[in-house]
Design a protein that fits this description.
The chain has 455 residues and is an alpha/beta fold. It has a single domain (5-453), classed as TIM Barrel (Alpha-Beta Barrel), CATH 3.20.20.70. The protein contains twelve helices and 14 strands. Helix 1 runs parallel beside helix 5, helix 3 (86-107) crosses helix 5 and helix 9 (304-314) packs across helix 10. The longest helix is centred in the middle third of the chain and has 23 residues, at 203-225. The protein is globular. It binds phosphoenolpyruvate and cobalt (II) ion. Cobalt (II) ion binds at residues 77, 360, 402, 431-432.
Length: 455
């Protein structure tokens, strides 16, 4: 394949050059012919996003890196094909919208809304197999790969699921696009923004006052300008997922007319997971050649020199908005790990957006073996991150959260005081525990307070 139109890509790069590298976290498909035929079909299906949306997001992420905007990225740890229904999509969109208004109102900054949605179907796992009662089967790797039940056929990697995932992503995105330009997001109708906070939540009144104040401000502006503020009826919403399943990502990697380079058209904003970050590994090889903005998960076992080497490999021309470092150190480690990383970035003069993921460094199992996170630890990692950046003369420009608009009981704590015994009541996640509606909204107020304090 020719690369004559590409920017400074090595001639050896192509959407499939990752195949020559050491690849991690990929499923073993038993029927290679079936896989190839499915990937061929996937490669012919239309793109889910457009290059101009991708470029627009990149320039908005550059604004966030400069402190002119804030990235709010959130959604399920792992989407499920079965949950692709209108109610789940509306609830997830609604909680992210409502959180974003809390952030805008509190900080008077633009907020970039990005869902872990419409393609977040593949999961990295610590082991290739799982054993129950003496039976060992391949591990569940997300709904685009296999099924979570514990039978041989459930756990066999099924190429058809790649198409089902693509289709569900398209259905989800189609609905999001409809909602984003319609009445759903119209600030003239605050009834759409009714909160569902537990009425005893201390933040409920604060939220209601904010919504009333926004409605009054809109009426005031419209009276002064003698016209309707049409822009307030639409919102922008972007998609993101971990770029883990390289066959899937490659099949949706295209050139577009009148632009240089290659675009991953399955999502606006793919990220490199913590387990697939090797600078000479297959994932990094794939990410090198796409024009999309890229997230990189950074945790305690990723020394700053290696992070910088990866940043330079993925962004040799230091393009603004290209790289977001999604830091997930944990509340106990962030004070040790974040300052040297900020210093290394400052010394390198490489442009990056710093974002905090206070979820993935704070996961633990209860005495009965349930995977959970504590709201206090999540809040603590975020607060520490804001302070550390401020002290270093740097900017925390985003938050990356696992959350849902449903009233699940997966994380402990928060105003609803969810305790360990509550976890069994409404624990739905197949993989990591998510903040529920109340916890997510509470965290939004906390982030807004921190944004004000560190302005
Ligand atoms: C995730 O974001 O769901 C995830 C697996 O994160 P990490 O790569 O940071 O462990
Ligand atoms: Co997760």
């Amino acid at each position: 394949m020719s690369n004559s139109l590409s920017k400074s890509l090595p001639v050896s790069w192509s959407p499939d050059s990752w195949r020559k590298k050491n690849v991690k976290q990929q499923p073993a498909y038993l029927d290679q012919e079936h896989l190839d035929e499915t990937l061929g079909r996937l490669a012919k299906l239309p793109p889910l996003v457009t290059s101009w949306e991708i470029e627009s997001l990149k320039s908005q992420l550059a604004q966030a890196a400069r402190g002119e905007a804030f990235l709010l990225q959130g959604g399920d740890c792992s989407e499920s094909l079965d949950d692709c229904d209108s109610d789940s999509i509306v609830r997830n969109l609604k909680v992210i919208m409502q959180m974003s208004f809390v952030l805008i109102y509190g900080s008077m900054k633009k907020v970039i809304r990005v869902g872990r949605i419409a393609g977040q179907y593949a999961k990295p796992r610590s082991n290739d197999t799982e054993t129950r009662d003496g039976v060992t089967l391949p591990v569940y790797r997300g709904d685009i790969v296999n099924r979570s039940g514990f039978t041989e056929s459930d756990r066999a990697a099924d190429p058809e699921l790649l198409l089902r995932g693509y289709e569900r992503a398209a259905l989800t995105l189609n609905f999001i696009r409809g909602l984003s330009v319609g009445g759903f997001a119209d600030m003239h109708h605050p009834e759409n923004w009714n909160i569902e906070f537990a009425s005893d939540s201390p933040r409920a009144q604060q939220y209601q006052d904010m919504i009333n104040s926004i409605a009054n401000s809109l009426s005031f502006m419209e009276a002064v300008m003698d016209s309707s503020l049409k822009q307030s009826k639409t919102v922008e919403f972007f998609t993101s997922h971990e770029g883990l399943h390289l066959n899937y990502e490659q099949a949706q990697t295209r050139r577009v007319p009148r632009r240089e380079g290659w675009y991953n058209m399955s999502t606006h904003f793919p990220w490199i997971g913590y387990r697939t970050r090797e600078v000479d590994g297959a994932h990094v090889e794939y990410f090198k050649g796409i024009e999309n903005p890229i997230g990189i998960k950074v945790g305690p076992k990723f020394p700053p020199e290696e992070v910088l080497e990866l940043v330079k490999t993925l962004n040799p021309e230091n393009e603004e908005g290209r790289i977001t470092l999604i830091c997930r150190f944990g509340a106990e480690e962030v004070a040790n790990c974040l300052p040297p990383l900020i210093e290394a970035v400052q010394n390198s003069e490489h442009e990056v957006l710093f974002c905090s993921d206070p979820m993935h460094g704070n996961t633990f199992s209860t005495s009965t073996g349930i995977k959970t996170r504590s709201f206090d630890k999540i809040a603590s990692e975020l607060e520490q991150s804001f302070e550390i950046h401020k002290k270093a003369g740097s900017i925390l420009g985003g938050a990356h959260l696992e959350l849902t608009g449903d009233n699940v009981t997966e994380c402990i704590g928060g105003a609803g005081k969810i305790s360990e015994p509550d976890l069994e009541r409404a624990y739905k996640s197949q993989v990591d525990p998510r903040l529920n509606y109340d916890q997510a909204m509470e965290l939004a107020f906390m982030i807004a307070d921190n944004m004000k304090a560190t302005k």
